[in-house]
Each structure stands twice: as structure tokens, then as C-alpha cells.
Amino acid sequence: MASNREPGTGTGDDGPAEREQVDGPAAILGIDIGGSGIKGNLVDPTSGALRAERFKLETPQPSLPEAVATVVAKVIEHFEYDGPVGCTFPAIVKDGVTLSAANVDKAWIGCHAAALFSKTTGHQVVVVNDADAAGIAEMAVGAGQDRPGVTLLLTFGTGIGSAMFHDGVLIPNTELGHIHFEGHESVEDWAAAKVKDDENLSWKAWAGRVNRLLDHLARILSPDLFILGGGVSRRWDKWGRYLDVPVETVPAALRNEAGIVGAALLAARSDLVD
Ligand code: BGC
Predict the structure, then answer these.
(1) Domain 28-132+257-269 is of which CATH architecture?
(2) Which residues of the chain have pLDDT under 70?
(3) Under CATH, which architecture does the 146-255 domain have?
(4) How far is the CA of 7 from the centre of ligand 1 (A)?
């Protein structure tokens, strides 16, 4: 059975949503699909504030498209929601089609995820790469707000996701977790939060790997800001101090909820909404 635990957090508790919950109109449902969990929440499309308690179900194993779509439908039903849905996916996503599958079943390669989810759930569903969604949220209402220049958001979990922005505009599907590094085919096989767990690394040892990756990315992309997200961003106090790179580096303000918020913001902005 898949672990329900966020990689690298060192705790079985996925933690409470840290954003304030407020009342207000026209919430949009955001759903974050990961290798181990599928979680959703209602999001205020203006402020990005969470409007309900997060609901999470396990990702089916194997994570075949139809099985995942059925769980997405269950998440939507839980919220008794009527409206467009924003959904993240941990792969390259172009025009609603998933084009890679590093940590999910290979059947996703070439799958029209947006069409499948829309058909299975009866809702209009927009699909976006998970790190791109997190980046959209951080730029709109989080740590990247009003930041000009190049901002690079990295998420650390089962894999490493990336979202790159220039003057707030997303360059989608950057997939920096798959650069060859330190003799590894994909740097995520060496520096993802899951590797910290798998190799029983201390925060310092794991952060040392992250630092080497950041240093390399600083050299080749000259970012003005790094935003570091994923479940481990909640434990920033444990590892942030070990980072020493010549670029301002901050934890994701929305922590691990950024994907849900970004997916919802995207659905709210897209043509799906009247
Ligand atoms: C995938 C990316 C994803 C990242 C984080 C990588 O293995 O290729 O698309 O953003 O994991 O989930």
C-alpha cells in the first residue's frame, strides 16, 4: 500500500492547512494529484485562501488513468461541488495531455487527462503540472508576489518539480528535476525529499545536496529568487539554515497547499468559468 506520508517530513501527519479559512462567494475546487495522495480543497479565486477542510484520498496503485479519475470524482463528490475544477498532475502537461510519467504509471504517457477527468467526473477539468500550479499560486498570492525578474520554484517530494517565471510569466514544463547531476540520470533520484527518507539522511546531509543543486541552477539560470516548496517546506526551520547560495532563497508561503491553490486559480482564470 502507498504511504500516506509526505516524503521528507519525518512524520505521518500531513499537517493542517496553514492558510486561513474564511467565508466568501464562488470558491473554485483545486485538486493536487501526487504519487501517494490525491487531495482537494475549495479556494477563494481572488485571495487564494482555503475555504474548507482539505480532503485527501490515497492514489490508487497501480496509478492507472481510469482508477485515478475515479478517485478525482470522489474528491469532487466530497465537496458537493458544482463548477470547474483545477487539477495538478506530476508530469509534463501540454493542452491537457500528460506526456511523461516519472512517478506514476506509464499508461499516463500520451493520455488526454483533461478529457478523461472531465468525462469521468462530469465537470470541466483543467490539468496542469503540479510544480507549475504551485508556482502560479506562489506568484499570485505567496512568496513570489510582485517579484520581477527570474523566479525559480522547486518542489521537493517524491520527485523534484520546477516552475520558472520571468516577470511573473510562467515558462511551463521546465522539468529541472530531470537534469543529469552528480552521476545521476535525474537529480531527483539524489535530492528529492523521498531520498532523504530512503537513505535515512540527516537534514544537514540532505540540504547539502539541495544546496549543490541550487548552486548549479544559480550558475546556469541566474534566478533572482528561489522558492522552495513541497511537504518539506513546512520543516524549513530544520534545513533552511544549511543553504548557502548567492540567490535569495525562501520557503513556499503556501507550503504544500500551493498546488491546490494554483490549480484552482488556473481553473478560475481559464475559459471554463463564465
Ligand atoms: C515529474 C514532474 C513533477 C515532479 C514533482 C517529476 O518526476 O517529472 O513533472 O513536477 O516530479 O512531482
Answers:
(1) 2-Layer Sandwich (3.30)
(2) 1-6, 9-25, 271-274
(3) 2-Layer Sandwich (3.30)
(4) 14
